Amino acid sequence: MSILFLFITTISFSQAKELEDVTLEMLRETQSPTDSSAVAEVLYEKAEIRFSIKNSWEYEYKVIRRIKIYTPEGYDQANVQIPYFVGNRNSDRESVSNIEGYVYYEKDGEVEREKIRNSDIFEVDLSDLWEAKKFTLPKIQDGVIIEYSYDIDSPHINNLPKWIFQNKIPTRYSEYSTHIPSEYLAYSMRTKGYYPIESLDEIKEGRIYVRSSASQISTSIRESKHIVKNLPKIRNESHVNNVTNYLPGISYELSSYKTEQYGPLESVSRSWEDVVKTLRETNTYEKEMSRTKYFKENLKTILQDKTLPEDKMRAVFDFVKDRMTWNDEQRIYTSDRLDKVYELGVGNSADINILLTAMLREAKLEANPVLSSTISHGIPLFPTISGLNYVFSHVNINGETYVLDATEKFTTPNLLPRRALNWNGIVMKPNAFEILELVPKEHSLKKYQVQASLDPDGIIHGKCRIISYNHFGLATRKSLDKKDLEEIKLRYENNFEIKEVKDIKISNLLKTSKPLLEGFTFSSDDQKFVEQIGKKFYISPMLFLKSEKNPFLEEKRTYPIDFTFPKNVDYLISMKLPEGYKVDYLPEKTIFKFGDDFINLTYLIEENNGFVSVKVRQTVNRTLFLPGEYEDLRQFYAELINKENEKIVLVKS
Amino acid sequence: MKNIFLTLSLFFFSFFYAQKDYSIANLNLDLLKKSNSVIISQDIHLEIDSYSSMTITEDKLITILNKKGLSALDAFAHYDKSTKIKNLTLTVYNTFGAELQKFKERDFTDVSVAGSVSLYTDNRVKYLDYIPSSYPITVHFEKQVKTSNTAFIKSFRPIQNYDQTIKESTFKIENNSGEILRSHPNEYSEAIKMEQLDENTVLYSIENLESIPREVYSPSLETYTPQIMFALNTFELEGQKGQASSWKDFGKWQYENLLKGQDELSESTVSEIKSLTSHLQSDAEKAEVVYDYVQNNTRYISVQIGLGGWKPIPAEEVDEKKYGDCKGLTNYTKALLSAVGVESIYCVVTAGDEIINIEEEFSSMQGNHVILTIPQENEENIWLECTSQDIPFDFLGTFTDNRRVLALTPDGGKIIKTPAYDDEVNFQKTEAKINIQNRDIIADVEIKTKGTQYDSRYSIADRTEKDIRSYYLNYFDNIKQLNLTDYRFQNNKEKIVFTESLKVVGENYVKIYGNDLILDVNPFNKFQVNLPQYATRKTPFVIERGFVDEDEFVFNTEGLALDTELKDIEFDSDFGSYRLSFSLNEDKLVVKRYLNLKKNNYDKSSYEDFVEFFSTISKFDNTKVSFKKV
C-alpha cells in the first residue's frame, strides 16, 4: 500500500525568494495566471522557526503572508485569526506579538499602503485551552493586496507547528524554514503529499540567546528551507477518508535532546521503538496500566463462573462497554486517574481502553494496548507520537489474536469501529512492539432477500429480509439503536423510497455475536420500479434495491478512493408475475469485473413458471484506488448502475 | 425490559422529590416514549428593583431520557459588562435519585460568543458540556443573573424544545421598581394560568404539556405556542435610559439615542457621491447609484462592543474602513442617500427564512437585523438590504420578505410591512430543445427565474466550475449520466431575472428494452419530494412562499413512431395545480408542464392530502411514453 507515497520527492534546491515590493503591475492583475476562477491567491507565505533558551528551550514562530484579492468571494481572506495555545499552566502558555497588517491599493496611479490599527486587533478565546488574535483589514476591494505578519513564542518544542503548503486558494510561493541548534536538539522531519517539496539543508555557525545570563552562546545551527511553488487550490472529493493525508505538508517532531550540557542526546521518537519506549514511561501506560485495586471486586464478580480464557475476555469486554460511556474524544493519554474515570463512567478512548487492557491483564490474559491514528487524524507514516491519537486493546489467547474497542456498544472482538480502520496500529508489549494491519482482511457481508408478487393493476406486495454481518452489522446497529418502530418505518420508506412498510421485525440488535436481521413487508406502486406504459409492464428486477446514483459523479479526481473495508453485498429477489402476463424481454446475465477482480458485479436472472428470480452480488476486494484508476472506476460504476436499472418487459399473454 | 426500567426509575425519582410533588409517575408512559426529555418543573423568577436593575433566577428540574434530549439541558449563562452571573449550579442525579455529580460556576467553560459570524463581541457565555454515562438522568439546573439592561425582559415561552414533555412551568414577575410594566400574551396563551400574588407580583403557570414532534414543513414553535411578552415603560440599555410605552415613543427613543448624529460624512465623500448622481433626476435613480456604490465599496464585518450591539458605528468610520455590520452599512447607505437629497428610513426586522413579525401590538426590544426603505409617493416603497454585495437593488429575498418591521423615523416608530413575493412572482420557466441520438439525449436548456426562485439561484454564477458542474449533476439527478457541455449565465439585476443557458448530454437516458424505446417526458424539471407519512401528524404546516413553474420540452422524434396513447393531465387541489399536456406534429413532440404550489397555512388534518398532492405530482412528473423505431 505504500504506492501512495512514492510521489514524495525532495529535489535539489533552486532559489528561496525574498518578499518583493508591491508594484502597480501587481495591484492591476485581475486574475490568477494559473487559475482564472481563483477568488484570491497567496502570492507569498513564509514561516520561520528559531530557538532560544528562556526558562528552558523555546521557539519563535514567525509568519508572513501576502495575498492578492481578485473578487468579493475572496474578501474573507482579509479576516484573519491567529490561534495560540494557552493551556492551564503559565509555563504552557504561548504568546503572540508583533502583529502587523497592511492593505496595498492603487490611488491616483500610486501604490498606497494602510496599516491596521492596534485597536482593531481583538483577543478571543476559542476554548479552555486556546485563544486567538483576530482582525480584519480595512479598505478591501477587488485587486488589493493584503499582507500580515506575526510572531508566536512557544515552549512546546516537542512538535513544531505543522505547515501545509497548499491553501483553499492557489499559492504561488510557500516556504517553511527552521534554524535548529543541532548540538542540543534533533528533530525528525516528515513531508507528505503529492507535490514535490524543494529542500535545502546547511549547517552554519550561529548564536542562541540565553535569557538567564542575558547572553548568547555560539553553536552550530542547522538551517533548513522547504519550498513549494505554484500550488493549485485544495479540492475536496467523495470517498476520501481524510483529505489532509494527501495535502503537501511538513512536520517536525523532537527526536532527541541533550539533558546536560555535555550529555549524550536522548531519543524520544526517532524510531517506532523510541515512540513505544517514550509512551511506555508515561503515566497512562506505566501507572494506570498497573493499578487494579479499584476494579478488583467487580472483576471477581464478572469472572466468577468463567474458566475459558475467551469467556473471560468477552465478559470483561462486555462489562467495560456496559459501564463506560465514550465522550467522543480520541486520545492516547488518560484524562484523569482511572479510578475516578471508572467511578464516573465517562471517558476518552484511552481512559476506556486502557481500563479494559488493565482489567484483561488482571484476568490473567495476555492483553496489550494498540496505538493508532483514526481516519480523521490521518496516516502516521513515520515514527511519531503526535501522529497517534487513538488506543484500543489487543489480546492473544494461545496464538489466537483479538482486537477490542470498548468505546462503542456494538463492537465485538475483532470488529473495530470504522474510525479505527486506518492503516497500521502498534501493539505495545511489555518489552517489545509489533505492527498490526488494521484494514480488515475478511469481507463484510450484507444480504438482501425479497419475495414479491405483482398484481395485474401494477401493485407490488412483498417481504424483505436484510442480514448484516461484521461492519455492516455494526453500522446498521448504530443506526437502529434506540429507534422506535415508527422511526424505523420512516427510515425504510425514505431509504428505499417505498410505501406502506409494515410488520417490521428487528432481531439480534443487542446480540452482537449473531448477524443483525431486519424484516418487513411492503406494498407499492412506485413507478421507480413498476411502470405501466401503454399495455405493458416495465419492472426493475431489483425493485427498490437497485443503485440509483453513481457515487462518482465528478469528472476528475485528485485523491485516492477509499472503500475502507472489503465487502460483499448480495441480492436475492424472487417475484411472482401477474396472471395473464408473460415475459416479453429479460435483461441479460452478466459479470462485470474491474481491474484484476478488484471490484465485481455478478448479475443473474431467470424466469421459471411465472416467477422471475434475480441473483446479484457486488464485491469489493481491494479497498484503495489511485486517482489514475478513477476514470475507469467511474465508468465501471456507470455500467453497473445501468445494468441494475435495466427492466423486464411484460405483455398480456 | 427497557420500559420497566424507565417506570422504575421515574417512580424512584418521584419518591425522592415527593414532598414537592414532582410526580411524573402518573404521566402517560406512551408520551414519554415519544419524548427525549421531561421538564419536571421549571421556575423562572424575575425581580425588577429599578429601571436599571433586574435579577433573573431560573430553577429547572429536567429528566433527560436519551442523547437527543441532552440539547434541552441549556446549561449556559450569557454575561457581559452589564450582566453578571450570580449563581450557576448544575447537579446530576441518577435514576435512584442519588446525587452523582455537582458542577459549580467555576466548572463551566467561559468563552466569547463571537463564533464565526462576528469578528469580535464583548458578550461572553459560560457553558457546561455535560455527557452522561447512561440515561435517563435527572438534572437540577440553577442560574441567577443580574443585569442593568431592562430594555429586554425575558418572555414566558414554556415550549422551547421539540419532543419534550412538560410537567410544570412557572414564571413569576415581581416589579418593585415603581415603573409601569406591560405584558402581552399571544393568542395561544389561554392555557397559561395567571395569579396576582401581591400588588407587585404576578405568577404565570402552565402544566402537563404533551411533547411536540419535529415534522416537515412545520412553522417555528414560537409562532403557534404560548408566549407572554413583557416590557417596562422606563428602561435602560447599556447605560442609556429610555422611556416608551408605544412603538411611536420607542422608535423615537431609538432614533434619538442610536441613530442621530451617526450620519456625518467627510466632504470628499459627499462631493464624490454628489458628482456620481448629479446628472440623475429621480430619487429612485439616485438611490440605485448610491446602492451600487455601497455594494462595490464595502463588505460585511461584525464588531459588537457595549452599545455597539444596538448603535451603528458612525458613517464616517464605515467610509474609512470600508466595512461594517448590518447597522453600520445600513446607516452608511442612509447617510449617502441623505447627502444626495434622498430621505430613507432605518428599519428593524427579525430576519431569517422563516417569517417572524415584529409584534405590532406590543412595543419592546425586538428584531435582529436592520434594512432600509425609501418611501415613494404613489408607488411601492423601495427596500434595500445593505449587507450583501450582489443582491439586486430594491430586492429583499427570503431573508426579510413579507413581515412587519419597525421603521425608525425622526417622528417616532412605525410598524410597516416589507413586500411579499406572490406565487406568480416566484416564477421559473424552463425551455428545452431535445434531440434523441440512440440512447442519448442532446439538449439546449434555458432556465429563467424570478422572485424568490431568483434569490436561490443567482449566486450559482459566482461558483467555481467544479461547483457549477456538481450543482447541475444534483439538479438534474434524474439523468444518471449527465454531461454538461456548456453553460452561460445572465444576471439581469435591473429586471431581477436570472437566466441559465445550458447544453447537456444525457447518456443512456432513453431506455431500450427489446423493441421498445422508453422516453421519460420530463428530463429537466422533476418535482420529487417524498414526504414522510406520520402515523398521525401533530403540528400544523405551512408553505411560506409559493411558486409557479412553467416548462416546455420539445423532443425531435424523427425516425420514431409513437406507441403510446398521449393523455393530457389536469389536476387541482387546495395546495395548488398541475398541468401536463402533449402535442405531436410531424417529428416534434411538445410537452408542456405547469405547476403552482400555493402559499398558505394549513391545519394538521390536511397533511394526508398534502402527501397525496406531492406524490401525485411526482407520479405525473415521471410520465413515460414508448416508441418503436420506424
From TrEMBL, chain A:
Domain Transglutaminase-like residues, every copy: 302-373
SUPFAM superfamilies hit by this protein: Cysteine proteinases
Coiled-coil zones: none
InterPro entries: DUF3857, Papain-like_cys_pep_sf, Transglutaminase-like
Residue ranges constituting the DUF3857 domain according to the UniProt record: 60-193
Gene3D superfamilies: 2.60.120.1130, 2.60.40.3140, 3.10.620.30
Protein name: Transglutaminase-like superfamily protein
Automatic annotation (TrEMBL), chain B:
Residue ranges of domain DUF3857 in the record: 53-205
Pfam families membership: DUF3857
Protein name: DUF3857 domain-containing protein
Organism: Psychroflexus sediminis
